[in-house]
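I am still getting used to backbone structure tokens and would like to learn alongside you. To get us started, please write out a protein record for me. Once you have written the record down, we can walk along the chain together.
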Amino acid sequence: MRKVAAGLMLCVLLGGCSSQAVSDDVDADGPTNAPAGLMHSPSAPPVPIEVPVGEVGTMFDSTPGLVRATATPFESWSQVSPNTIAIHFVTGTPECYGAEAQVTETDSHVVIALRTGTLPEAADKSCIMVAVYGTMQMTLQSPLGDRAVVNAA
């Protein structure tokens, strides 16, 4: 019993020390000590990274009419061919959940607005809550070239 009490006391002490260490790195009136290039505003979507083509999840086709769809940032992308990219994201099982993507191309960016939600035919089903790494391919109107692939704001 004394060992359990000592262990709990150690956890409390270490927890107190770690919260102090965090507060030392953050200025209450200003930004953290992190490099400016690694910081983004809390409302900004994450910047996806390029990964090799072989890192593929469960394939999803763009499905219009999703129920309870929400904006979902994708985490990474791959260039499959000059005009084809694949985005990689987290969603639910393909038996119940789907994804829809809208692509906007400019001279400097490929902006992808990804939404995930329940498939219309599964709206009244009981679906398990399991995270699935999903992949969706899309064909671009012109070759990707050196354009940046980004999440829609």
Remarks:
- DSSP finds one helix and nine strands in the chain.
- Residues 1-40 have pLDDT under 50 and may be disordered.
